[in-house]
Amino acid sequence: LMKLKEASQDMNEMEEKNQDEKCHDFMTGETSVSSSQTHKTDSRNLQMRVHTGESSLTCQQCGKSFSRKGTLKVHMRIHTGENPFICSQCGKRFRQKTTLDTHLKVHTGEKPHTCQQCGKSFSRKGSLKIHLRVHTGEKPFICTQCGRRFRYKESLRAHMTIHSEEKPFICSQCGKRFRQRKYLKAHLTDHNGEKPHTCQQCGKSFTVKGNLKTHMKVHTEEKPFICSQCGKSFRHKESFNNHMRIHSGENLFICHQCKRSFTDINHLKNHVKNHTAVKPYICRQCEKSFTYRANLEDHMRIHTGEKPFTCPQCGKSFTVKGTLKIHIRVHTGEKPYKCLECEECFTHHTELKRHLQTHVTTETNQTIFNK
């Protein structure tokens, strides 16, 4: 079917070429019976290759076969790196004219392909097709190692680096290695202190545009993902998926050093740093070191006395956002930490930890009494 489709496209290209040559003959006054017969012969030969599935032209570098010389010529540009079609506005080069034509819509702002469900428009039909997976929930790309599914091929490719342990992208300043180029790029801003993406509502700046996008949900208070088991809501689908593993008991991410398992890849990454003991961020005032830049920034407020996180109900201020989050439970009455033995609930995980010791002591005393 693919060969028929490819050959059909080749026939369309040949027809266009024939029309161009006929037009040239008309303009110059030249006619050629032999040329006309050649075109007819070429068309018949191509039609025969469509029906028989024959591909007579083969790429000497990769072995891929084609039914038409022109298609092989375009294909060869993959190997030669030739990009003959140049955008007059930005200078970007392309292998095929159709790709250039699609690119030009970026400059013109033309987006002829519109989603019927949400109204979002795209410059390419293929981009619309990929976008529709958001509505259909289709995730055609599956990880062969853990079975996780992805909407986009790029997402699967990025995910596979978790399993491979390969980190080909190296920071030239500190030698830190990364699985993906985008993570290295984000890391480099830590060295130069650049934070080009600024929130228009609170002025907070971010090194990565995606982090700003995530931050904006703090202002909208949008939490569309709700757990059906405990009612907890989340801003991000990934956080929701990680939370659901708490109920299912599923732990996908395992530490190779101590075999401890985690529901979230980020929790595993944080845990691994306990083994490596790498703390590159050092406080210049007291020389205390930290694993993460954000932790250093939180710590610096101890020296400056800054308390930017304020409770909207009682006005009490805190140096760390997490402390404010815990404090708010005093007002809401939320107690998310539950003892599995007696079902008593607690505001903070340290309270639950202390409480669990009472069960251990009771069991120990009971054992001694029975003896």
UniProtKB/TrEMBL annotation:
<feature type="domain" description="C2H2-type">
    <location>
        <begin position="85"/>
        <end position="112"/>
    </location>
</feature>
<feature type="domain" description="C2H2-type">
    <location>
        <begin position="197"/>
        <end position="224"/>
    </location>
</feature>
<dbReference type="GO" id="GO:0045595">
    <property type="term" value="P:regulation of cell differentiation"/>
</dbReference>
<dbReference type="GO" id="GO:0005634">
    <property type="term" value="C:nucleus"/>
</dbReference>
<keyword id="KW-0804">Transcription</keyword>
<feature type="region of interest" description="Disordered">
    <location>
        <begin position="1"/>
        <end position="20"/>
    </location>
</feature>
<feature type="domain" description="C2H2-type">
    <location>
        <begin position="57"/>
        <end position="84"/>
    </location>
</feature>
<protein>
    <recommendedName>
        <fullName>C2H2-type domain-containing protein</fullName>
    </recommendedName>
</protein>
<dbReference type="InterPro" id="IPR036236">
    <property type="entry name" value="Znf_C2H2_sf"/>
</dbReference>
<comment type="function">
    <text>May be involved in transcriptional regulation.</text>
</comment>
<dbReference type="GO" id="GO:0000122">
    <property type="term" value="P:negative regulation of transcription by RNA polymerase II"/>
</dbReference>
<dbReference type="GO" id="GO:0008270">
    <property type="term" value="F:zinc ion binding"/>
</dbReference>
<keyword id="KW-0862">Zinc</keyword>
<feature type="domain" description="C2H2-type">
    <location>
        <begin position="337"/>
        <end position="364"/>
    </location>
</feature>
<keyword id="KW-0863">Zinc-finger</keyword>
<dbReference type="InterPro" id="IPR041697">
    <property type="entry name" value="Znf-C2H2_11"/>
</dbReference>
<feature type="domain" description="C2H2-type">
    <location>
        <begin position="225"/>
        <end position="252"/>
    </location>
</feature>
<dbReference type="GO" id="GO:0042802">
    <property type="term" value="F:identical protein binding"/>
</dbReference>
<dbReference type="Pfam" id="PF13465">
    <property type="entry name" value="zf-H2C2_2"/>
</dbReference>
<dbReference type="Pfam" id="PF00096">
    <property type="entry name" value="zf-C2H2"/>
</dbReference>
<feature type="domain" description="C2H2-type">
    <location>
        <begin position="113"/>
        <end position="140"/>
    </location>
</feature>
<feature type="domain" description="C2H2-type">
    <location>
        <begin position="281"/>
        <end position="308"/>
    </location>
</feature>
<keyword id="KW-0238">DNA-binding</keyword>
<keyword id="KW-0805">Transcription regulation</keyword>
<comment type="similarity">
    <text>Belongs to the krueppel C2H2-type zinc-finger protein family.</text>
</comment>
<feature type="domain" description="C2H2-type">
    <location>
        <begin position="309"/>
        <end position="336"/>
    </location>
</feature>
<keyword id="KW-0677">Repeat</keyword>
<dbReference type="InterPro" id="IPR050826">
    <property type="entry name" value="Krueppel_C2H2_ZnFinger"/>
</dbReference>
<dbReference type="GO" id="GO:0003677">
    <property type="term" value="F:DNA binding"/>
</dbReference>
<dbReference type="Pfam" id="PF13894">
    <property type="entry name" value="zf-C2H2_4"/>
</dbReference>
<keyword id="KW-0479">Metal-binding</keyword>
<feature type="domain" description="C2H2-type">
    <location>
        <begin position="169"/>
        <end position="196"/>
    </location>
</feature>
<dbReference type="Pfam" id="PF16622">
    <property type="entry name" value="zf-C2H2_11"/>
</dbReference>
<feature type="domain" description="C2H2-type">
    <location>
        <begin position="253"/>
        <end position="280"/>
    </location>
</feature>
<dbReference type="InterPro" id="IPR013087">
    <property type="entry name" value="Znf_C2H2_type"/>
</dbReference>
<keyword id="KW-0539">Nucleus</keyword>
<feature type="domain" description="C2H2-type">
    <location>
        <begin position="141"/>
        <end position="168"/>
    </location>
</feature>
